[in-house]
């Protein structure tokens, strides 16, 4: 028998969600959308001032400044969320860092920075959150990129990290198949975020290569990707586990 949801249905009602990178871009859009759809949001980012401005539009939410590049900060963020709200149902690893660098001129620190925010931090957050998510029958939505599925120019560190997030998601999905837990990953294409609009190309960059990154239908609004994340986090996606969702405005269609 077909089941239809009532008018005003909030698919995330009753869920406590920890969302990273909420000071701008995709993380901010996701925090606002989750609140609209009934979730209680605990947001973390490094920029406290920008985060506070975002959370003016996140009713009932809380936010705190943490650097997810530090393992202890990841553990502290999870514990603060649970201490404030008594549970954790959803972890969304939306924070991202992308600086274009030619591989021959990348420093060791450039590589470390790419991995810290885009892969190592999400791993530590997943590990810290897992006991609470297992207890709640919750789920994880990781955010990779189309760069986690293919190569991208001047982005060897970023691509490596984003491929790693896809691998981490699949590994967790297999490891916890028999548990009350779901793990999925979203791979966005280009979005109109500060990280994209304010980027600086490497010196003597080949712009023909750079322009291949863009989708033929143009840049997306972050909320378009946030909607995919919200769906995967909801009980409407109860049968979806270990999936890789590409949300790229047609970039992969050709």
UniProtKB/TrEMBL annotation:
Its EC number is 1.1.1.100. GO terms for biological process: fatty acid biosynthetic process. Keywords: Oxidoreductase. The keyword Oxidoreductase applies. It comes from the Bacteria. CDD domains: SDR_c. InterPro entries: NAD(P)-bd_dom_sf, Sc_DH/Rdtase_CS, SDR_fam. It holds the Pfam family adh_short_C2. Belongs to the short-chain dehydrogenases/reductases (SDR) family. This is Short-chain dehydrogenase/reductase SDR. It comes from Mycolicibacterium chitae (Mycobacterium chitae). The lineage of its organism: Bacteria, Bacillati, Actinomycetota, Actinomycetes, Mycobacteriales.
